[in-house]
Amino acid sequence: MNEKKAPSTLVVGFALFSMFFGSGNLIFPLMLGAKYQAYFYVCVAGFVITAVLLPTLGIMAMIPARGRFEKLFDGLVKPEMARWFFLLVLIFWIPLGSGPRCVLLAHASISTYFIYTPPILIFSLLFLILVYICVLNRGRLIDILGKALTPLLLISISAMVISSFSGGYMGQSSYQPFDIFIASLVDGYYTQDLIAAIFFSSALVTMLHQSMSNTRQIMKKTWRGGLLAVAMLAIIYGALMASSAIHGEYLQGLSGDRLVAAMAHIALGSTLGGISSLAVSLACFTTEIALVVVMADFLSAKFLGLRYGKYAIGLTLSVIWMLSLLDFAGLMTIIAPAMQVIYPVLFFLVLRLLWRTRSQIRSHQ
Hints:
Elements: H1 9-20, H2 23-36, H3 40-62, H4 79-113, H5 120-136, H6 141-164, H7 177-190, H8 193-208, H9 215-246, H10 248-251, H11 256-272, H12 274-304, H13 309-323, H14 328-363
Helix pairs in contact: 1-6, 1-8, 1-9, 2-3, 2-7, 2-9, 2-11, 3-7, 3-8, 3-9, 3-14, 4-11, 4-12, 4-13, 4-14, 5-12, 5-13, 6-9, 6-11, 6-12, 8-9, 8-12, 11-12, 12-13
């Protein structure tokens, strides 16, 4: 393919942002702002560390690794053992966790404002069929995410946030700033975007190879696009926390799947409140596409064989569909214990790879 048709850094940044920005990235900032109100800026400081800076480290680690996440285990264990560890990570993260969770939250959001919404069994099937179509056209995936879906998602979120600033007030918080900071750090950890950074950066590098042949340029574009994506995340997190802090008295105590719809109803009224369903559904959909790409590529490359790529996609979507028939609490009982072990291990491996890369650079100077 002609390199002149390669996506721009802006499109790459938008595409990476849409991969990161799932339903949880909307819900957690709104919950924090609503709970701590006048101290929302403390929430921003804590949340950005774990939900933005840690993913940035993940992207930085994947640049010298050229998108090969296997390098995280270089010098520690045999490649065969590393392969099984990454399979375990992906299973708990995607088909048993974030994959069905995206479906559930998209369904909950749409059902809030539409008179008729198909039951979850039918909705999930239709939702995942659309995902399957997009994944099969992955040659155009970066353009789809970067040029179409992400701008629409940003417009939807911006409309909700800007409208929310026209009324309300920030109540005082009885919590101590240090306690708020720690709580925000923990909630940022629950986004699990460090894991996303590792695998989505790898998937992005693979997709860029379909339109570019210069490896150095691919790495540079990934780095610049990654910086743009995390900067957008930080700005949106702050805006969401501020908007929910202004209307905290109406939002406190609401469950996560109702929070965004309630925020949109307050900011936009019942007529335009459907924008919230659009924002959440788009966030879930774009993230679902990226999740399935990562899982299917790993299965076909490491276990099934590259010629069985379509079967890997179908297998991944089938498991997601079955798990989407559970409720949110049921999913969390499956993935929460596993992530409490897996996430710290990955953080250690990322720091180790960055340190080794730094040492190698200094030794060649």
